[in-house]
Design a protein that fits this description.
Layout (H helix, E strand, L loop, with lengths): L2 H22 L2 H4 L19 H20 L4 H26 L6 H23 L4
Length: 132
């Protein structure tokens, strides 16, 4: 197995674990979904409910993981994964802002202070897999 294939397999494993965790522990992801994207109780505003966003992103991460494992789809999956991680930055910023707000807890401050900076290496890692 060459270095690129091993790297793709490692990122696919990480994405697969994260995808499964979206369904096992959806509450972990709830604070990262921006309120502005979520449908309210009356069914107005937002495209999906928070729960649907969490499940949908779990499915997308699972599909991305599978795509990274196949050489024929790796470049497209890597591009999509890098874009997905980039889109997640907005949610992480919002969660970090709320964690340091008046209702934030020490635990949330620690979690979101660690999650946000992880996005850049994840984006770079996914982007690096675009090379054949």
């Amino acid at each position: 197995m060459n270095k690129q294939t091993a790297s793709a397999a490692a990122l696919a494993a990480l994405l697969g674990i994260s995808a499964a965790n979206h369904f096992r522990n959806p509450g972990f992801y709830a604070s990262v979904v921006p309120r502005t994207l979520c449908r309210d109780k009356s069914g107005r505003f937002g495209l999906l409910t928070r729960s649907q966003w969490i499940s949908g992103s779990g499915v997308i991460e699972g599909v991305a993981a599978a795509g990274l494992l196949l050489p024929a789809t790796r470049k497209a999956a890597a591009t999509g994964t890098a874009l997905m991680f980039t889109a997640f930055v907005a949610g992480h910023l919002g969660a970090l802002e709320r964690a340091f707000g008046e209702r934030g807890s020490d635990r949330e401050r620690i979690i979101h202070s660690l999650r946000l900076p992880l996005q850049l290496p994840l984006i770079r890692w996914a982007w690096s897999l675009r090379r054949s």
